[in-house]
Design brief:
It contains three helices and no strands. The chain is mostly helical and 99 residues long. The protein has a domain of 54 residues. Helix 1 packs antiparallel against helix 3.
């Protein structure tokens, strides 16, 4: 019984770690770079404003995080946290009987 609970807790931890990693896009290892002054001038030269009559509509939509995965992770986190607190409380009460 104890082994099954430990395995379930480890699976839940691995799942939640994957959800967190997936929501962040795995971008923790990417280091932001700083632009030098010459780079900024080169970017400004490349981007020239279009005349008023020639604006193009943007066809790309901003990426929205998947709310279903966030809700699932939140529910699992709350359930596992409360279960873990209950287990720790029970074990603490048992330990107080002996000491």
């Amino acid at each position: 019984m104890t082994r099954a609970v430990i395995v379930l807790l480890l699976l839940a931890v691995c799942f939640l770690a994957g959800v967190v990693y997936g929501n962040n896009g795995g971008e923790e290892g990417i280091v932001p770079t700083t632009l030098t002054e010459t780079d900024e001038h080169a970017i400004e030269k490349e981007v020239q404003p279009a005349p008023d009559g020639q604006h193009e509509a943007l066809s790309t939509q901003p990426e929205m995080p998947a709310p279903a995965t966030e809700k699932t992770a939140s529910v699992l986190e709350a359930g596992i946290t409360s279960f873990f607190e209950a287990v720790v409380t029970i074990l603490h009460q048992i330990a107080e009987l002996f000491f």
